[in-house]
């Protein structure tokens, strides 16, 4: 590998590319352009659209009102060959809360609609569920290391894709794919973090968590059924995505993504996620329903 190629794959360069990807360019009041992901082909990753939409909505709200929830519907697959245009609608600014709507568009038609709510921080009643007891990330190997060890069991057409450089490092507690395809309860836990420091802008950390929250989640609903994304007759896609941001965090520190799937049926899988700091603070919750369709041979 050349020095130039090594530089492009370095964690620091990967994070600069992620920060540039999640930022949006203002082209008019409440109108923004989101960049394309470098080297991507096919449909746009849903976490990219959610992260860019979060940033676009946040740019229309005062800095003292951070986002606390968003609810999005994916309507069409995004095209990685095109930028995405985000139109923000300022629905309400009250004494404590602000609400925004975001329409993400390509070729003049919506690919995602999102509603977001922002709140000025205040004190109140407080409780949370405990974090699951799992091994620390230092005792686990990354998903990339796992795939490199078992690359002969990955279809040849997918090997470059599973080994591609990533902005987010994943360390699953349960390493199931591709070597173990027995049915299990639809529960899994995964440590994740940005591969290099993100700086101190809280909006960057929120957008990065939103980006990562679309990873591993939908696959939870497949665990009981002996299928995964490498199955050629499986069609899967996020249909909607909700994210609640409870407390402050750093997305370049280890976070535990604990997911479960209480139901699947009618070619849809429903998934929930809780995101904890390594100290055990619950900082975010996620819910998503996705398409999980087995095509008939």
From TrEMBL:
<dbReference type="GO" id="GO:0006637">
    <property type="term" value="P:acyl-CoA metabolic process"/>
</dbReference>
<dbReference type="InterPro" id="IPR042171">
    <property type="entry name" value="Acyl-CoA_hotdog"/>
</dbReference>
<feature type="domain" description="Acyl-CoA thioesterase 2 C-terminal">
    <location>
        <begin position="187"/>
        <end position="291"/>
    </location>
</feature>
<feature type="domain" description="Acyl-CoA thioesterase-like N-terminal HotDog">
    <location>
        <begin position="42"/>
        <end position="119"/>
    </location>
</feature>
<dbReference type="InterPro" id="IPR025652">
    <property type="entry name" value="TesB_C"/>
</dbReference>
<dbReference type="Pfam" id="PF02551">
    <property type="entry name" value="Acyl_CoA_thio"/>
</dbReference>
<comment type="subunit">
    <text>Homotetramer.</text>
</comment>
<dbReference type="GO" id="GO:0009062">
    <property type="term" value="P:fatty acid catabolic process"/>
</dbReference>
<dbReference type="InterPro" id="IPR049449">
    <property type="entry name" value="TesB_ACOT8-like_N"/>
</dbReference>
<dbReference type="GO" id="GO:0047617">
    <property type="term" value="F:fatty acyl-CoA hydrolase activity"/>
</dbReference>
<keyword id="KW-0443">Lipid metabolism</keyword>
<dbReference type="Pfam" id="PF13622">
    <property type="entry name" value="4HBT_3"/>
</dbReference>
<comment type="similarity">
    <text>Belongs to the C/M/P thioester hydrolase family.</text>
</comment>
<protein>
    <recommendedName>
        <fullName>Acyl-CoA thioesterase 2</fullName>
        <ecNumber>3.1.2.20</ecNumber>
    </recommendedName>
</protein>
<keyword id="KW-0378">Hydrolase</keyword>
<dbReference type="InterPro" id="IPR003703">
    <property type="entry name" value="Acyl_CoA_thio"/>
</dbReference>
<dbReference type="InterPro" id="IPR029069">
    <property type="entry name" value="HotDog_dom_sf"/>
</dbReference>
């Amino acid at each position: 590998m050349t020095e130039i190629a090594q530089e492009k794959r370095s964690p620091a360069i990967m994070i600069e590319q992620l920060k540039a990807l999640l930022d949006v360019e203002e082209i008019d009041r409440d109108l923004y352009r989101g960049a394309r992901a470098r080297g991507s082909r096919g449909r746009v990753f849903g976490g990219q659209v959610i992260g860019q939409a979060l940033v676009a909505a946040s740019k229309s709200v005062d800095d003292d009102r951070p986002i606390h929830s968003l609810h999005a519907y994916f309507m069409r697959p995004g095209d990685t060959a095109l930028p995405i245009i985000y139109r923000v609608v300022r629905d309400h600014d009250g004494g404590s809360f602000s609400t925004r709507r975001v329409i993400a568009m390509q070729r003049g038609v919506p690919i995602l609609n999102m509603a977001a709510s922002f709140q000025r921080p205040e004190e109140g009643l407080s409780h949370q569920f405990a974090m699951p007891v799992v091994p620390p990330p230092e005792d686990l190997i990354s998903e990339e290391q796992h795939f490199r060890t078992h690359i002969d069991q990955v279809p040849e057409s997918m090997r470059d894709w599973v080994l591609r450089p990533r902005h987010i490092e994943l360390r699953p507690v349960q390493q199931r794919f591709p070597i173990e395809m027995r049915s299990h309860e639809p529960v899994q836990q995964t440590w994740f973090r940005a591969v290099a420091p993100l700086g101190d802008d809280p909006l960057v950390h929120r957008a990065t968590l939103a980006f990562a929250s679309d990873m591993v989640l939908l696959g939870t609903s497949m665990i009981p059924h002996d299928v995964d994304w490498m199955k050629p007759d499986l069609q899967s896609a996020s249909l909607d995505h909700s994210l609640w941001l409870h407390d402050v965090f750093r997305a370049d520190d280890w976070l535990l993504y604990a997911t479960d799937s209480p139901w699947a049926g009618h070619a849809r899988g429903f998934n929930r996620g809780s995101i904890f700091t390594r100290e055990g603070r619950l900082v975010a919750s996620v819910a998503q329903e996705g398409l999980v369709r087995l095509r008939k041979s």
